[in-house]
Amino acid sequence: MKYILALLLALISFRGSSQNKLPVINASSSKAKIYEQDNPVSNWNISPKIKLDIFTTGKLIKSKTVKFKTDIDSVSFRIGPGQQKDFIVLLNGKDSCLTRIQSPEVKNYSKLPVEIHDTIPFFVNRFNTNFLPVVFNNADTLILNFDTGATDISFTNDALKQKVKSHPELYNTLYGIKIGHQNYKTKIYDIQLAGNETDGLLGWDLFDGMIVELDYDHNQLIVHSKMPKQILHDSKYSKFKIRYIKNRPFIESEISQSGIKSKGWFLFDLGYQRTIMLDNDLLREARFPTEKMEVIKKVIMHGTRGNEIPVITANLETLKLGNFELKDVPAQIIEQNKPMRGVNIHFLGNDVLKRFNTVLDFQKNEIYLKPNHLYGTGYADQKKSGA
């Protein structure tokens, strides 16, 4: 009897250790790729010098498959919001590299004992840059561009040299930033350029788990911990589901030209100052008749890193956002040096988005749009009559 009991205990112990054993995959090269379901491929460098190497996915709304692929092996996981998966990459048969794939924690502040409804001054300048005041590290008052096409907080190099007296350590240290009456903790990054007349970018994810209302009629940005009932009951809003690609929010929109329609996912980019940017590779795939779009002008634009982006501006017959149709929209068409590397995407910019009072629900991952007093105004790149 004692022998049988000891054998059973040994079997239980073996099963437990087997279940806790991490998957091991092989690699003969330090270069790998990570495939996120519904996302572009990410490049990865395998390094035995890092104790625990972590890849963080973008915000997940539901579980998805992630595949880690070396030059000779691979492993796949099903991962949900706030979860993580560990495995070992054996490099050249000798170096064990502990690797983790994780998704961000789920944030939802709707159950706070004291609700937050914090109103902040919010404006759009003549360059179509939105901006709001912040206080960094209890010392420096700065003007930031609220950019839903960006994450984290970045200060321009000029602002870091001339206006930020706190001398922050970039990339790794958490600092306090006051927006309205609320204090947030964040890392600071550097960029070469931001929207005109601003000191940097305020990414969307600082407000993850909250609701952000943009009221262009009253020049207010309002941060809510709980959705106001008057918004839910306002029938003038159109509602859009958010899809996160590369950790940026996208909504579905439609363009049309000469009777040809094309529906797709557009980056909701408050930091892009123009109307819309259309990816020429996607347009070709959809057989969209760009040759029938009247060319307005050709220019060189610059990304946040100062990179040159050649762009053609042409007249688009119709842009449809939900139930709203915008006619004769000057659209930028891009083919080279794309703003988001390795990704073919369309952009919705602030010369369109400023025309809608907006609610960004980062709890239910939805966006609400309602026309405001700017809805019928002209565009910065509009075709001149008689031209």
Overview of this structure, please?
With 387 residues, the chain is mostly beta strands. It has three domains: 2-102, no CATH class; 117-224, Beta Barrel (Cathepsin D, subunit A, domain 1), CATH 2.40.70.10; 229-371, Cathepsin D, subunit A, domain 1, CATH 2.40.70. It has helices at 2-20, 157-162, 229-232, 280-285, 350-353, and strands spanning 24-27, 31-36, 42-45, 53-56, 64-69, 74-79, 84-91, 95-102, 117-121, 123-124, 130-136, 140-147, 153-156, 175-179, 182-186, 188-191, 200-203, 211-215, 220-224, 238-241, 243-245, 248-257, 260-268, 276-279, 295-302, 308-321, 324-334, 346-348, 356-361, 366-371. The longest helix has 19 residues, at 2-20. The chain is globular and about 65 Å long.
Features:
Cathepsin D, subunit A, domain 1; 3 domains; 387 residues; six-stranded antiparallel sheet; globular
